[in-house]
Amino acid sequence: MSDTASALGKRRFEAGDIIFMEGDPGTETFLIQTGRVGLMKRGADGLFEPLATLGPGQVFGEMALATKRPRAAGARALEDCQVIAVSRAHIDEKLKDADPFIAALFRILAGNLESTLDRKREVERAGRPRTDAVLKGRQEALDRAMDDLTGA
User: Fold this and answer.
1) Which residues contact 11 (CB under 8 A, 6 or more apart)?
2) Is 71 helix (H, G, I), strand (E, B) or coil?
3) Where is each Cyclic nucleotide-binding domain found (predicted)?
4) Inter-helix orientation angle 100-150/88-97, to 10°
5) Which of 82, 93, 102, 135 is spaced 20 to 30 Å from 13 by Cα?
6) Kind of pairing between the strands at 48-54 and 18-20
7) Which residues have C-beta within 8 Å of that of residue 96, sequence separation ≥ 6?
8) What digits encode the pLDDT tens for the residues 49-103?
């Protein structure tokens, strides 16, 4: 990674800085050199839910590069940190120079990942109405039980 590290930009973020937001285009992936980064996703209530805390040596932002989709989560510096940013163009250039088998394998893995994410979204969408109906039914049963207990 030393060739990549020297060829690409190092970036510094202060604690609290937003590195990227959920929904942003994925044009880079990042390798953490120092500090910690939090990954977050906006919940149904509009608040951010923490997904993971990453530290030195870990990579984030690669999903959007692999799938060429908008970022599925946001990233924020939890403490002062330094990262190496690797652009999509740099990765594409490396793949162009790579052994054809390795380049094809990377593209197949990215395609498989994209298919898996599509399927996950389908399952989540299909399950949501059923889950909502079950929760509504349980809430109604709880309300009836509370009415019975309180004599209302």
Assistant:
1) 30, 82, 83, 84, 85
2) coil
3) 1-88
4) 140
5) 93
6) unpaired
7) 103
8) 898 999 999 999 988 877 788 898 999 999 999 999 999 888 888 888 888 888 7
- HSE of 109, CA atoms in CB hemisphere, 13 A: 10
Amino acid occupying residue 147: D
Distance CA 74, CA 62 (A): 12
CA angle 74, 76, 77 (to 5 degrees): 155
Distance CA 20, CA 77 (A): 10
Sign of CA dihedral 110, 3, 56, 86: negative
Q: How confident is the prediction for the chain on average, in pLDDT? A: 82
Longest dimension (CA), the chain: 76
> 91 exposed, middle or buried (CB, 10 Å; 0-12, 13-18, 19+)?
middle
From CA 86, how far away is CA 7, in angstroms rounded?
9
Structure tokens at 80: 């002062």
Residues 132-149 have pLDDT tens digits of: 666 666 666 666 666 666
Residue with tokens 């002062």: 80
| Number of other residues whose CB lies within 10 A of the CB of residue 13 | 20
